[in-house]
Structures are given as C-alpha cells and as structure tokens.
Amino acid sequence: EAQVTQNPRYLITVTGKKLTVTCSQNMNHEYMSWYRQDPGLGLRQIYYSMNVEATDKGDVPEGYKVSRKEKRNFPLILESPSPNQTSLYFCASSLAPPQGSDEQYFGPGTRLTVT
Amino acid sequence: RKEVEQDPGPFNVPEGATVAFNCTYSNSASQSFFWYRQDCRKEPKLLMSVYSSGNEDGRFTAQLNRASQYISLLIRDSKLSDSATYLCVVNRDDKIIFGKGTRLHILP
C-alpha cells in the first residue's frame, strides 16, 4: 500500500530534550516536506527536500533540522524543543517538485506537546 | 498581506444546497493550484487540481482566474459528508503555500 508513515503519532516531552520525528514514504517520491499546523495559522511549511541531500528552508524553519540521506526517509529533528513548538506536524511527499500538478500525500500527523 | 487568503468561515449550509468558496493569492509567479480537504485534524487529502480552463469532478467544480489571482471551488447538491475544512494550496517555485482553510458545516 502506497503511504507516508510518521512516528511517533503522539509525543509529550520537556523543554530542551532532543527529539526526532521520523517520516518514510514507499512511493519513490522525490519531493518531501514537513509542515506544522496551528489553530488560526493553518499549515506552514518548515523544510522541504527536492531529492537526496537536497534540503531547503520553508517559511518557519527556526528551531528545526532535517536530513535526506535516503530517498524514502525525511526525519525532522528538534535539537532543543521549546513550548512554542507544541503543534501538529505533518510530513508529505510528491512524485516531483511542486511546479507541476502532482498530488501531495500526507502522513497521519504527529501531535507534539513540549512542556 | 498573506500570500494565500481564504474566508475561514464557518459556512453553515443546508444539505442539498450549492456552496462556493474563493481563495486569493498575491504572487503572480504562482504556478499551480489545488484544493485539499481536511477532516477534523486528520491529514489533508487532495480534492482536485485547478486549471485555467476550469475542471469538474462530479459535484465539484474548480476555476482559476489568473488575471484576478483567485481560485474558486463550487460544491453542488451538498452532502453531510462534505462537512470539512477546505484548503486552498498554491505552488510557487519549490515551495507549497497553504491557505488557512474554510470550514464548511452541512446541516441536515
């Protein structure tokens, strides 16, 4: 089954404790991205990746890191989480970069709470 | 001004009615356009792409007006299952920009 998986689905952590949210897709997609969704602010792109070893900042990259060492995986790293990073996070992938009309496939979301 | 703007709603519409949403975008370099649907904090899913010639998929019709920089979504004969948040999405260069979404409630 074609899908994007994220883990963990729910995470409660404390300020400053490094964490990684994994994202994996099995569709051989080139383009992957991370979003956060907050009430009243909608979905905002954090980082995106055009292909292996090619990552770039989205609109809200501060406090986050990503890597793309393999085509299928795109982990999101919070080196020192803070309460303002409490949010719902989505990973997404698409076959090609977004200039075309390719559909984005989203993971089920990770609900992160930082206390 | 936000790059992609939508009326947040909520729109409360009786079942069977026709409802229309608009979305405006500010960057004329925007290249492709979509409507996504999101149910109650679940992941967004593609509803339809939007083309300059307009496109229709069953009860749903999408239009793009590049001159006025807006896209629209029309839902005919609305069903209870159409209750959701509808997200306008614009691609510009390598980035993907979401509107904040329009909430739709279909009333029995």
Descriptors for this entry?
heterodimer, A: mainly beta, seven-stranded mixed sheet, four-stranded antiparallel sheet, B: 108 residues, mainly beta
Question: In words, what does this structure look like?
Answer:
The complex is a heterodimer of chains A (115) and B (108). Chain A is an all-beta fold. Helices cover 0% and strands 50% of the residues of chain A. In chain A, a hairpin with a 3-residue loop joins strand 4 and strand 5. Chain A is globular, with a radius of gyration of 13 Å. Chain B is built from no helices and eleven strands. In chain B, a hairpin with a 2-residue loop joins strand 9 and strand 10. The termini of chain B are far apart. The interface between A and B is medium-sized, with 26 and 23 residues.
List the helices and strands and how they pair.
The complex is a heterodimer of chains A (115) and B (108).
Chain A (H helix, E strand, L loop, with lengths): L3 E4 L2 E4 L5 E7 L5 E8 L3 E10 L2 E4 L7 E2 L9 E3 L8 E8 L10 E2 L3 E5 L1
Parallel strand pairs in A: 2-11
Antiparallel strand pairs in A: 1-3, 3-8, 4-5, 4-9, 5-6, 7-8, 9-10, 9-11
Chain B lengths: L3 E3 L4 E4 L4 E7 L6 E7 L6 E6 L4 E3 L2 E6 L4 E6 L8 E9 L2 E4 L3 E6 L1
Offer a quick outline of the entry.
The complex is a heterodimer of chains A (115) and B (108). With 115 residues, chain A is an all-beta fold.
